Amino acid sequence: RTSTTALRRIPQQFPAVAKSRAFSSTAPQNRHAIVTGGARGIGKAIALRLARDGYDVTVNDVSEQNLGFTLSEIEALGRRAYGHVADVSQQDAVANLIKASVRELGPLDTMVANAGIAQVKPLLDLTTDDFSRMMNVNVGGVHYCYQAAAKQMIEQGTPGKLIGAASIVAFKPFVLLGHYSASKWAVRGLTQVYAMELAEHKITVNAYAPGIVDTGMWELIDEGLAKKAGRKKGEMISKYSSELIALGRTSVPEDVANLVGFMASKDADYITGQTYVVDGGIIFT
Ligand code: NAD
């Protein structure tokens, strides 16, 4: 059932940028990162940030839609890009993703398990399928990526960084996002424990917990919340910005990518087992 397709053909949508923005010669050379769910949103911003920081990047997503754009933009930054379609909730598909990406771009240094899904639904309406799917993608996906990447790094005999997507809802309650919240609390848990287990291999494990980020996912959440509150689509995001976020604006994906860029850098070598919040100071009441 899982589609696993290697995308070797990289469309050239941004040839002009390619010439003008070669990456800095002081950036580390020949490092390889995988970013899951990197076709759009936060994952795309992370992939581009890592490319700017000198990484060659494997970009995974569950479908080919938009993937080519991310690959082109990485190439335009002067780095190598490899696209691989796979569903991270499938263990075999994740194992294939790692194998194929190492074959294409060399030893793996950093795995960013970013792919995730959201759903706005009250507890009393949640079905078993809703719950299982949430856990399979958001928890299973991160677990499979952490595990397979750790095995690869240990086989290589090199240090590495595992980075996963949590959320502010793993710290503070957000109504109608119960099963989503549980999945993100689970990412905090995996991150803490696997960090202890993998320390002897010089592999660090950390997670990022964004607040409200302007992406396709937030549009979906906004729509669900607005429907419940009898408001128009798009109204909730401005309400949250003005009433709930201390810094007075919602995040752009690059706000999150800045944190992940740090986590993937040498400067974060002594940090492990942590989940860092990047939310502009959210005050949920
Ligand atoms: P998004 O929906 O805009 O993008 C997610 C990408 O992941 C999509 O391209 C999608 O196709 C891909 N994806 C979904 N399921 C997949 C699967 N099974 N295998 C591979 N790829 C898959 O979401 P986003 O806002 O960019 O969120 C990225 C991560 O950040 C998610 O884990 C999300 O839970 C988390 N997050 C987002 C927000 C927010 O406000 N947007 C807040 C906190 C945490």
UniProtKB/TrEMBL annotation:
Pfam families in alphabetical order: adh_short
InterPro entries: NAD(P)-bd_dom_sf (IPR036291), Sc_DH/Rdtase_CS (IPR020904), SDR_fam (IPR002347)
UniProt keywords, alphabetically: NADP
Annotated GO MF terms: oxidoreductase activity, acting on the CH-OH group of donors, NAD or NADP as acceptor; quinone binding
GO process annotations (BP): fatty acid biosynthetic process
Family designation: Belongs to the short-chain dehydrogenases/reductases (SDR) family.
Listed PANTHER family: 3-OXOACYL-(ACYL-CARRIER-PROTEIN) REDUCTASE, SHORT-CHAIN DEHYDROGENASES/REDUCTASES FAMILY MEMBER
Name under which the protein is recorded: 3-oxoacyl-reductase
Originating species: Diplogelasinospora grovesii
Source taxonomy: Eukaryota, Fungi, Dikarya, Ascomycota, Pezizomycotina
